Amino acid sequence: MVLGFCGNAQALQNFTGKVTSIEVTYMPGKLVFALDAGNAACPAGKGLTWNKADQENNKAVMAALATSMSTGLRVKFYIEDDDIACVGRYVYLVE
Q: What CATH number is associated with residue 18?
């Protein structure tokens, strides 16, 4: 017997760019930043949000974004498919 499970499919979009600004006003609860790249839902320069319940995670992402901004490393940012609020699911530092 074969049993299958069909849950909700999760579609993600991503784009890669350099950090152009970081707003730290709401840290450690959340941070807002901008990249020089984007997609149709979140164009370049629009505020992107990183907002996790784990404040230590928010601090680690802040450190990664600051590193990106100061070194020129790019960030790959993942959002839910067509999320016009531009809330991050995953973030990577890339060359």
A: 2.40.50.70
